[in-house]
Every structure is written in structure tokens, then in C-alpha cells.
Amino acid sequence: MGYALARDDVEAPAILPDLTLGFDPADIWPDPMDCPPYPRFAKTVTDRATLLERLTGAVVTVSGFASEYSKPDPDAVSVFVADHFGPRIARFSDPTCEFLDRMGEPFAGKYPDPNKSHRAMALIEAIHLRGWLRKLETLDAKAKDEERAKAERRARARLDEWEKEVAELTAAIADRAEAEARHRQRVADERAAKANSGARHTLERHHRAAVEAAQVLGIDPPELPKECDG
After folding, report:
1. Do 39 and 121 touch, CB atoms closer than 8 A?
2. CA-CA distances (angstroms) from residue 96 to 22, 24, 111?
3. Tens digit of pLDDT at every position of the chain (230 positions)
4. Which end of the chain has the lower number of beta carbons within 10 A, N or C?
């Protein structure tokens, strides 16, 4: 399945093979973490939009501008590499040599043809960019896994603490149940005593008024209820 690289100012061929897809970063760096930072000689870039824009530029440089790209024929990829990379001069070495050697076949021991180095280095950049994007995706996935694991550990710790707390506090509640019942009864008794005291005071006050009323009427005064003897 192809993919599109849109540019409004240029009429592009319908489909071209993307020669940069002839190399799988997973074959060059089986462990995604082994891919070196991008770019090699400047401040590392991690912004996905910037990286994808640079990848687009490298693809166009290597394969030409098209409205859509397809997977390349392996023979076409081999021809491109043979045409743009040559044997390295003995004892010649620089950071690019080291990078190509680490990439393995078919780049080990080779060097970009000086007359075609622009397209040759664009191929290397495209491969490096895909490897770097793969590494960033791996790092993102690891970060999400670690965050999920951390959240699960926190949740497990909370549940473990809850189970421990339930065991400790329910045992303590059971041990204090009788004392708590006595306290409740004492509180209830105190409340009842206070209520009865208020009722007695009310009866005594109203009894005095009733006695005075009986005296006015010349009849026997009412007796104070025995319940007032507290």
C-alpha cells in the first residue's frame, strides 16, 4: 500500500517506488535501542513532525517527487546502492565510515560516491530517521508500560494497606465493643437523668403554682408526685 507526499506547487507522477523502503531498520538495529540518536552531528531531535518532514525530504531526494509511493523492487535498490556507494579507500575513516560499518551490509566498507553523495546520504538519512522514529516509539511504549506498572503497584499497595487496615481495625473494634456498649449506656443514662431532672424541676415549679391556685379556691392542694423524689 502506498503513501502520499503532497505538494500543491508541483505536478507529480502518480506513483514512484520509494527506494528508501528497501532497508528495514529492524534488520539494521534488531534492538530498537541500538539506533544512534538523530541527527548524528547536531542536537538530538525528537519532535515527530520535524522528523517526518525530514524523512519526506530524504525520500524525495532519493526517489524523486511523487503523489504516492510504493514498495521498491529489491533489484532497483541494489542498483541504487551499487551506483551511489563505492569501495572505501584503505585506511580512510571518518564518522560516516563508522556509521556505515555499524549499519552492516551492503554499506559496510563502502563510502558515498563523491559525485552522488547528496542522494547517497539522503538514503542513509532516511534509514536513520526510520530507525530513530522506531526507537522513539519503543521509548514511548516503555514509558507507558512503566507508568501503567507504577499505577498498578500503587493500586496494589492501596488494596494491601486496606486489607491490613481492615484486619487491624476490625479486631480493635471487636476488642472495645463491650466498653463501647458501656459508654453508650452511660451516655444514655446521663441523658435520661438530665431529662428527668428537668421534668422534676418543671413539676415542682408547676406544683407550687397549683398549690397557690387551690388555696385561692379553698380546696385541698394537689400532692407532688412521688416520681419527683429523685
Report:
1. no
2. 20, 19, 8
3. 344 444 455 565 678 999 999 999 998 999 999 999 999 888 999 999 999 999 999 999 999 988 889 999 999 999 999 999 888 776 556 677 888 888 888 888 888 888 888 999 999 999 999 999 999 999 999 999 999 999 999 999 999 999 999 999 999 999 999 999 999 999 999 999 999 999 989 998 998 999 999 898 889 888 888 887 76
4. N
Distance CA 51, CA 38 (A): 9
Alpha-carbon span 129 to 121, nearest angstrom: 12
**Cα torsion angle, 54, 24, 128, 113, sign:** negative
Task: Please tell me the distance from the alpha carbon of residue 196 to that of residue 187, in angstroms, as a whole number.
Answer: 14
In three-state secondary structure terms, 155 is helix
Q: Name the one residue in this structure whose C-alpha cell is 412521688.
A: 226
CB-neighbour burial class of residue 221 (10 A; exposed 0-12, middle 13-18, buried 19+): middle
Q: What are the residues whose beta carbons fall under 8 Å from the beta carbon of 76, sequence distance 6 or more? A: 17, 19, 22
pTM over 0.85: no
Q: Strand runs (DSSP E) across the chain, as ranges? A: 16-17, 69-70, 85-87, 110-112
Distance CA 21, CA 130 (A): 9
